[in-house]
C-alpha cells in the first residue's frame, strides 16, 4: 500500500497559549492541517494564519459535534485529531510516519503524558491514557453525549494498534485553573447523568464514591508517587465526584 496522506485536525477556542507549539510539532507528519475554531476572542486565529494552516470557524454545539465537523473538513480520509494543548514528541512523530508508510487496520491509539502545574504525571490513572486519535474517517465517528467524547469504530473493525511515543498534554497551569474547569465539567457531567435518566442520589454517591475516587487514584494507582501533583489531582478528582452528584441532586430536587 502506498503512503497515505494525513490530515491533522484541531478544534480551538481561545488557545493562544497552546496552539503554536501544537501546530509546530504536527508539521513533521501532516500533509494537511485544519483548525476548526469556535469564534475565539484572543489571538488563536491570528497565530494559525501566521503559521499557514487552514482555519474554519464553526459555532460550538458540543465536543462530539465539533470533532465530527472538524473531521469532515479534512482533505484526506486518514486523520490525526489533536487537542490544542497536545504536542507530539519526536518518537510519536516517527511512529506516525511509519503508520503512514504501512497503514494497517482502522486506526491507532496514542499515549498522553500530562503536565500538571509543571510536573509530568505518570501515575494515578493519568498515564498512559491511551486514546484512538489516528483513524480512517470512513470507518468510524466521534460519539458520546456531553462529556467524554470518543472515536468509535464501526462494528467488525480490527482493534486499533498502539503507537510508540507520547503526546505531551499541557493540562493545568495552576490549581485554580483545575478547580475552575472542574466546576464547569461537573455541571456538564450532572446534565449528562440527567439525560441518561439517572435521578437517584444517595449517601453512597455523595460520600463513598468520592472517598473511593481518592483512595483508588492516590493509593491503588500510585498517585502518591507523583508528589504534590498526585495529591492535588486525587483530592480535586474526589471533590469532582461529590460536585457531580451534588449538582445532580439539586436538579432532581428542583
How confident overall, as mean pLDDT?
Answer: 96
Q: What is the terminal-to-terminal distance? A: 59 Å
The overall strand count is 11
Q: How much strand?
A: 25-35%
Radius of gyration: 19 Å
Structural class: alpha/beta
Order of helices and strands: EHEHEHEEHEEEEEEHHH
Q: pLDDT under 50 segments (min length 5)?
A: none
What about the largest sheet?
Answer: 9 strands, mixed
Write the layout of secondary structure elements.
Blueprint: E1 6-12, H1 19-26, E2 32-37, H2 44-50, E3 54-57, H3 63-73, E4 78-83, E5 86-88, H4 90-101, E6 107-116, E7 119-121, E8 131-136, E9 140-143, E10 150-153, E11 161-172, H5 175-195, H6 203-220, H7 227-253
Parallel strand pairs: 1-2, 1-4, 2-3, 6-11
Antiparallel strand pairs: 4-8, 5-11, 6-7, 6-8, 9-10
Helix pairs in contact: 5-7, 6-7
Q: Keywords, please?
A:
nine-stranded mixed beta sheet; alpha/beta; globular; two-stranded antiparallel sheet; 254 residues; 26% strand; 11 strands; 7 helices
Task: Give me a quick take on this structure.
It is built from seven helices and eleven strands.
Report what the structure shows.
Helix 5 (175-195) runs parallel beside helix 7 (227-253) and helix 6 packs antiparallel against helix 7. With 254 residues, the protein is of the alpha/beta class. The chain is built from seven helices and eleven strands. Helix 2 links the parallel strand 2 and strand 3. Strands 1, 2, 3, 4, 5, 6, 7, 8 and 11 form a nine-stranded mixed sheet that branches. Strands 9-10 form a two-stranded antiparallel ribbon. The model has no long low-confidence stretch (mean pLDDT 96). It starts with 5 loop residues before the first strand and ends with a helix.
Amino acid at each position: 500500500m502506498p503512503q497515505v496522506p494525513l490530515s491533522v485536525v484541531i478544534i480551538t477556542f481561545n488557545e493562544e497559549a497552546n496552539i503554536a507549539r501544537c501546530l509546530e510539532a504536527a508539521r513533521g507528519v501532516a500533509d494537511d492541517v485544519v483548525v476548526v475554531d469556535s469564534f475565539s476572542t484572543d489571538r488563536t486565529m491570528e497565530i494559525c494564519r501566521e503559521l499557514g494552516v487552514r482555519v474554519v470557524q464553526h459555532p460550538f454545539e458540543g465536543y462530539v459535534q465539533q470533532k465530527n465537523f472538524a473531521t469532515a473538513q479534512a482533505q484526506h480520509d486518514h486523520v490525526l485529531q489533536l487537542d490544542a494543548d497536545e504536542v507530539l514528541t519526536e518518537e510519536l512523530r516517527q511512529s506516525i510516519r511509519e503508520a503512514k508508510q504501512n497503514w494497517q487496520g482502522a486506526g491507532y491509539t496514542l499515549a498522553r503524558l500530562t503536565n500538571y502545574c509543571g510536573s509530568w504525571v505518570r501515575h494515578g490513572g493519568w498515564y498512559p491514557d491511551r486514546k484512538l486519535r489516528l483513524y480512517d474517517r470512513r470507518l468510524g465517528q466521534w460519539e458520546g453525549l456531553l462529556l467524554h467524547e470518543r472515536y468509535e469504530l464501526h462494528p467488525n473493525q480490527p482493534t486499533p494498534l498502539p503507537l510508540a511515543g507520547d503526546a505531551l498534554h499541557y493540562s493545568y497551569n495552576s490549581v485554580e485553573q483545575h478547580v475552575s474547569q472542574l466546576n464547569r465539567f461537573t455541571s456538564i457531567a450532572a446534565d449528562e447523568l440527567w439525560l441518561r435518566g439517572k435521578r437517584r442520589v444517595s449517601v453512597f454517591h455523595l460520600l463513598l464514591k468520592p472517598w473511593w475516587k481518592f483512595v483508588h487514584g492516590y493509593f491503588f494507582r500510585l498517585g502518591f508517587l507523583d508528589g504534590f501533583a498526585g495529591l492535588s489531582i486525587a483530592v480535586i478528582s474526589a471533590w469532582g465526584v461529590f460536585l457531580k452528584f451534588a449538582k445532580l441532586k439539586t436538579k432532581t430536587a428542583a
